[in-house]
Amino acid sequence: MNDLIVIEDKTDFSMKVDFAKAEEWARGLCAKYQGLVISENDVVSIKKEMAELNKYAKDVDESRKAIEKKYKELLAPYVDKIKSVKQIFDDTYKSLSNQVKAFEAAELKKRRDELKKLIDAVIAENDMEDYRADFAIREKWLKKSTSDKSVIADLGEIVERVKERIAGEAERQRLKQERIEAITQEAERLRQEFPNGMDDSVLSSALTSDYPLREIFCRMRRFASQNEALRRKGVLGKNKNAEQSVAPVAETATQSTADTTQYLFKIQTLVIGRENALRVKDLFTQIKAIAQTFENID
Asked: Looking at the predicted structure, is the pLDDT value of residue 40 above 70?
């Protein structure tokens, strides 16, 4: 492997062409145009002379192509022989490379399987099956230069990040449930204070509202108070839920349905006539009251 044989060309090559004379001929033809300023009257004649110069240039280039073709054909057999020598090395390299790649592929699969077992153990130990996507194998873990210690450290960091996320999700759920319970309890208090003014539809709207609790409580009280007064005056119909207590609302029971939907549905199903006029007016009054309370519409 230490011997290096160099293919050396020892051919004595020369062309019997008087390049100096050819260059002198070309310069002689172009000399009169050096520094020439063309006038408008010269355009037609100069274009003819330009065509003649272009013809000379093409003739010279054709000579070049003919010479290149001639010597390319002469060199072709020798070039092919040189390529055949190179091909011996290329074929040998390819054969060895295929075998090496097969071993490397098997080694990579083994490494990937080992990492999968390690990741499975970490996930099982920390009960994080739902977060498996966070533990996807990284390319750097597959490299020989990456130690198991480094991989374990990375997995530890992932575990901590997932724990933080789980804790954050749990805290958000706790706050959400506390909010639901606080709104439900406030609705119960308002039910006791305004038995004819507090509708379950107000509770539904409050549970789906993004306002701060203090603002929601104010709006609930305002609506219940207004509704109570309207019912005493006979503007609104009787509150069917007046004698019912507000049942605790489980977190899964919350719906994002707008509470006005039930009223709109009732309107659509009514046969509008004189006998239903008061009912329609009652429904519209309730819708308006809810909108003013929860959407801050004057």
From this structure: yes
Model-level pTM?
0.47
Q: What is the pLDDT of residue 258?
A: 40
Q: Report the distance separating Cα 248 and Cα 261, nearest Å.
A: 22
Which residue carries 């099982």 as its tokens?
Answer: 124
Query: Above pLDDT 70, what percent of the chain?
Result: 76
Task: DSSP for the chain, please give it.
Answer: ------------------HHHHHHHHHHHHGGGTT----GGGHHHHHHHHHHHHHHHHHHHHHHHHHHHHHHHHHHHHHHHHHHHHHHHHHHHHHHHHHHHHHHHHHHHHHHHHHHHHHHHHHHHHT-GGGGGGGPPPGGGGSTTS-HHHHHHHHHHHHHHHHHHHHHHHHHHHHHHHHHHHHHHHHHHHHHH-TTT--HHHHHHHHT--S-HHHHHHHHHHHHHHHHHHHHTTSSPP-TTTTPPPPPPPGGG-----THHHHHHHHHHS--SGGGHHHHHHHHHHHHHHHHHHS---
Q: Do residues 28 and 20 make contact, with C-beta atoms less than 8 angstroms apart? A: no
Ranges of each domain in the chain: 195-294
**Regarding predicted confidence, which is higher, 294 or 137?**
137
List pLDDT tens digits, range 203-259. 888 888 888 999 989 988 888 888 888 888 776 555 544 444 333 433 433 443 344
| Whole-Å CA distances, 122 to 115, 141, 151, 152, 158 | 11, 15, 12, 9, 10
Q: Which two tokens stand for residue 178?
A: 């506390």
The tokens for 157 are 């960091």
CA distance 14 to 150: 66
